[in-house]
Hints:
The chain has 428 residues and is an all-alpha fold. It has one domain: MFS general substrate transporter like domains (Growth Hormone, Chain: A). It has 16 helices and two strands. The chain has helices at residues 2-10, 17-31, 39-46, 51-78, 81-99, 106-132, 139-167, 169-190, 217-222, 225-241, 247-256, 258-286, 292-305, 316-342, 350-379, 381-409; strands spanning 416-418, 425-427. A two-stranded antiparallel sheet has the order 1-2. α1 crosses α12 (258-286) and α6 crosses α15. The longest helix is centred in the C-terminal third of the chain and has 30 residues, at 350-379. The radius of gyration is 21 Å and the shape is globular. It starts with a helix and ends with a strand.
Amino acid sequence: MFGSIRSVFTQYQGISKSIWVIFIARVVTNMGAFIWPMLTLILSTKIGYSATTIAFVSVGVAFLFIPANVIGGKLADRFNKKKIIIIFDSISIVFFLSCAFIQPGTLMVVFFVLAGLFANLEGPSFEALIIEASKPDEREKVFSLSYLGHNLGFMFGAAIAGLLITDYLSLAFIIDGITTMTSTILIVFFVKAIKVEEMEEHEKNEYEDSEEVDANSFIVLRERKSVWIQMVVFSLGAFIYSQWSFALPLYMAHLFGDADGTKLFGFVSSFNGGLVIIFTPIFTAMLVKFKELQKIIIGMALYSVSYIIIKDEPARYIFFVMIFVFTMGEIVNTLGQSPFMSRRIPASHRGRISSLMGIGYMIGGMGGQLVVGISIDQMGYDKTFNMLVIVGAISVAIIAYNMKVDKACFPKLYNKKVDEDPGLLKVN
């Protein structure tokens, strides 16, 4: 028992300095990341868009971001990832800061979309850099720590955002730009990739071995059937997950008014971040013997059924109960999802396949907002939440089937042993 408790606090020992820098950068970025999580409320309360209009705007943005992901993935596999991050992050920051000096309206939306466009161009480079800075056998801990940093910053930022968005929107844009700039500097100067030749033999994973750089991504994935199936699942998961920042704040504003709904969403978001900080290390240690897809099944089931809890116009405290269940699912899903993809994609194609994943996630998320936005306007919230649970059940069934497919595609990943350190997974 005491050994298990100790492992919660010691499991991150031995991780490279680069990963700790990424952790700090995540904290800094998300302490100032006020805008993206609050975008739905900005469009509804500040600009006056309806749920359906917001959904159509989101879908339009998604289609604009798709080519950005494709281009960003190709650039990540061919050029220096740090230089790509510097260039596109800098342009993104300029547009973020520009939003601070104009009134809420169409031009602000355009600038904000452009900021997101360039952020998407550097996204595949950033994701590939995290993988390159870590060893295959420590991915659970690496992604766990990165996710922890994301939420540590977000926990403080979300509560402040709920207050800033109402009366100090310009200040929120300025802080967002400055924190993004700070994290970019940290990553560029202090994160270093680990070369394959520097690893011990037992630390290597043959499924990540480089292939021909010019090989088409679809050809590379042709023999990785389980990855294709899981990309579909990730899109369905994004369909459900995206509603916590779309349907949920709209529902709160509907029940409690714009001002109180915005503040409640801010505090619920902070509660989400606090839960992640507490439970991510615990679940990382507890679930070390679980396969990635087993974790994803648990996660998908939990955060899809969480929407049932808030049916029938509940009291405010019920939203904290709902977000508790949702967050447990989010944590477990994250601990399975990122390591699953990182171990099954060749190093030569990390950027391009990461961009395909981003496109799938974006289609699921934005498509979900379009469908849910129309559903809210036409059928109301309760029937919409029922639909989310059905999508979750379909996802769980697909993952259960994919477990057999994955074992056939990547048998060596299922022949593993766990060290005395429960966070360390060795692939034989």
